[in-house]
Each structure stands twice: as C-alpha cells, then as structure tokens.
Backbone:
C-alpha cells in the first residue's frame, strides 16, 4: 500500500528532524561543532542502533547505508544556518518531531515483526526506536530525559503501535493499518503539544 | 542441588525488587507513569542485557521470555499502590535489593561459565549483572551512580562470586557452592546496610 | 612496517593512560576504590567495546584477552599511589592522553577496515574508539562530556584518520601512513592543549 519511496522518504525525514532536535539541544549547551554533530547523530540513529543491538539485527542500518549519516549531519547544519536568519518556532520543530516519532515507532515495530517477534517485543521496539535517541541526547547533555516527564510522548507511540497491531490482527492490510497507526501517534502527540496534555505523575513522598 | 523452580523464583524475585528500586527512584524525580515503568524495567533488566550484549549471548533473556517484563512492571506498580497506604521502610527495600544482588550476581557468573569464559570474565559478568541496572537507573535520573560511592555493594558481589568459584574449584558441588556464595553476598551487603560499612574512598587533591 | 610488538605496546599504553584519566576523574568525585576502578576500566575499554558491539565484532577484545583489564586496573592504582607523593601535572597527563587518542583512533580505523567497511564507517569507528570511553566516563561522573566542548580533540582524530586513509589511497604503505596519521593526531591535540586552540561553538539563542 505504502510505496517504498514513501517509506524511504519518511525514514530520512525522521532522521533529519531528530538530528535537528539533537543539534538544537546541544547548541543550547554551548557544544562545539563536533559536539553538535555527534549529539545530532546520536539523537537520530541512537534508537534504531539500540534496537538492532538488542535484537541482534546486523548490520545496523547506518553501518550498511551511510546516507543516514549525511542526512542527519546535513539537517543539523542546515538548521543552524536557517536559525541565524530566521528563528524556527519551537512548535514547528515539535510538529516535525511528532512526524519523526510516528514513523520511527512504526519502523521499529515492523523490524521486530520481520524478525518474528511477538506483540510485546514489537511494541517495546517501536517505543525504543522512537524515544531512545532522545533519551541518549538528554543523558549526554546532562539533562533528565524529557520523555520521562513530558506531555504524552512514548504513550502516543505505544497507543498508535498497538492500534496498528490490532488492525492487522483484525485483517486490515498492512499499509492501511500503518497509516492509521502513524496518524494516531501524530494526533496524540500534537494534542500533547498544543493542549499541554500530560499523563499522570507518580510521586513518592520521602 | 538447587531445583529449577527455586532458581526461577529467585530470578523473578531479583527482577521484581530491582524494578521496585528503579520505580521508587524515578518516582522521587516526578517522572510520569511511563517514565517510572521505563526506569523500573531498565533497572531490572539493564544489567543482564548489557552482559548478554557483551558476551554476544542472543536472544537476550527478556526478548525470549517476556514474563520478565510483566514481573518488573507489576512489581513497580504494586510498590506504588502499597506505598499509598503504607510507607515501606528503606531498610526493608534495601534488604530485598540485597537478595536481588546476590542472585543476579550469581546468575551472571553462571551465564559466563556456561559460555566457557574464564574466572575474570565470570566475575566481571557477575558484577555487571548485579550492578549495571542500578548504574543505568542513576544515569537516567541524572544522579551519580550510588554503587560508586555507597556502602559495600559491588565488592560484596565480587567477594561472594569469588568464594563460589573457589569452592567449585576445590570440588564442592555447584548447588552448595552457589548457596554459600549467595549467602556471602547477602551477609556482606546487609553488614554494609545496617552497620554503614563502606570501602575506602580514593580521593585526589586538585 | 610497524612491528607487532610496537603495536601491542601502543595498545596497552593507550589502555593505561585512558584508565589513569578515568581514575583521576572518579577520584575527584570521591568515588570509592571500586568506583574508581570501574570508571578507569570503562574509560579505557568503553570506546573499543562500543565499536565492537556496533560492528558485531565478537569476541570483544578484553573478553578474549583479559590482560587489558589488568593493565587498566594496574595503571589506575599506580597513578593514585604516585600522586600521593608527587603531583603529576595536568599537562603531562594530557600529553599521555593525546598519545592514547592517536593510537586508539588508528586502531579503530584499522579494525573497521579489516571488516571491509568503507571510508565513512572507518572514520566514525576511529573517532568512536578514541572518544567514547571518555564520554562514558563523563556521563557516569555526571559531567557534560569534555569532548563536546573542549579544545581540538575528536577533530584531531578525524583529521589524522582522514590523512591516514588518504595516504593509503595514494599508494603509501600502511605502516608509514599509520605513523604519519598518528603523528598528525598527536600534533593537533598538543596544539589544542598547549595553545588552548578550540573549534567554534555553535550557539543557539533561545
């Protein structure tokens, strides 16, 4: 249903927006050019790398196809260039990031499915692919990972991924189910961004 | 000597107590439910995952048997529920954690032995299995890892693991040696907790 | 050109100086002896371990040859002993560290080449081998990684590694190209240390 060229576009698009998110976070910490590029790449490819290591799926995507690295570095540097002349609003970046999350989560689920794993592992790999890069970004920048206490983020990936698996189980074709699952992630995430929706905090009193 | 059902019980028990430890640490940081569950799982399965990656031992335990994930998440949520009504004393948690450390360290050693590794790698894998989950927990929560400057912790795993390997080398059967090694870890760790025993700090003057 | 015994000496030398760097960082954070040794080993073998995981190159060097662990621990403890009587100047340590960087970067490139990877992956593996251990050291010690905002460091590895690959491509024999590449890394890094040369910071205004 979804043509290969659309999937490839989304994959590179996800890499680019996650790289920009990493580059901007590193830029706010006064990292040098090298540091900015490293954090950009780790944000963009960290989740998929961790997934492939855990699933023993070698070669890892960017080791086999270095185009991912060029897309990530190009996007990071372009973002810096653009922002010299025109400040990109945070919500525009967050919206791009939501598209990246939607596709990366679905890509992670599909990779795990292709390797024959069950529902739980597929969902966990979807979440891992979508959020681990951002967690690594925040750890390197010495911040508490945003995803741990931010508006609906990983839960959007979980819900959309679960919807996709349910629809396929119910007999819908893979392409349609994937589009619906991705839209669900996107919509949930955008509600989180624009309405400030959060999931409950579990607090412990000392 | 030790029946399989006892070993399985200890494995799940270790997973549960480490998940609780992760959940409580995350709860103190005001993470949302998702963040709490992620930190709980990483604390519980992080050490074994790192060990299996380094030893190239695939599939990783929780990828093959997702029961570990349910045990970890169930324990984390139960701990939060219980603590609403009844504050669990820190020393009770530490005592459970000591049992978890004792079993995880021994499980790590046995996994490395089964793969044919020598004494040093077995001991390092025992320590890694017992402490790496807690190190990851503290890194995600943006704390300096407790194990680096806490009362006797990893050293207990090293001593008990070494005792186990020595006893097997001297001809004791595996089950008895394992029980003695685990008890040694437990006793050393409890002395650390209840007597405040620490190992020396190596300090550098700037 | 370079005899095996020279290469082995440089490999252990790199392990030793990186272990010392990790031990001193941990010592400044008041870690206990165990913590100091763990941070020393992670600094010394972390980069190579990450490289081997990503390239699926098993067994990992130190799992196969535990001499690396003894060299790292021995160097870390010796550094502490020496510093009780005689403070080692920071620049002496930095100079040793530059030699370690030069060799580790080259060793990473050669490992990737031996596995049949192309130029970009070889360079990335060179940088990863040279700097990832220090990044892990700083993450565990809850600092922002030095390499992200320090004088010329990873860029030295990139430049020297690129020079090596270029010279081999142009027909120079491997041993000579390697010596020139390593000297280039060393000289660039020493200029960074002694002249305070840094690469530009990319900053973002909020």
Residues:
């Amino acid at each position: 249903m979804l043509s290969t060229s659309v999937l490839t576009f989304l994959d590179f698009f996800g890499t680019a927006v996650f790289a920009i998110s990493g580059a901007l976070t590193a830029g706010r910490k006064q990292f040098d050019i090298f540091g900015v590029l490293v954090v950009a790449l780790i944000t963009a490819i960290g989740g998929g790398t961790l997934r492939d290591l855990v699933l023993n799926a070698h070669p890892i995507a960017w080791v086999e196809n270095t185009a991912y690295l060029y897309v990530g570095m190009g996007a990071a540097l372009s973002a810096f260039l653009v922002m010299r002349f025109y400040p990109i609003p945070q919500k525009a970046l967050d919206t791009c990031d939501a598209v990246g999350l939607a596709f990366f989560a679905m890509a992670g689920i599909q990779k795990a499915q292709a390797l024959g794993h069950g529902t739980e592992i597929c969902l966990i790999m979807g979440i891992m692919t979508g959020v681990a890069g951002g967690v690594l970004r925040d750890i390197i920048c010495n911040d508490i990972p945003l995803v741990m206490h931010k508006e609906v983020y990983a839960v959007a990936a979980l819900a959309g991924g679960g919807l996709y698996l349910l629809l396929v189980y119910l007999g819908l074709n893979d392409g349609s189910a994937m589009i619906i699952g991705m839209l669900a992630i996107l919509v949930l995430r955008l509600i989180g961004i624009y309405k400030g929706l959060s999931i409950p905090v579990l607090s412990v009193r000392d």
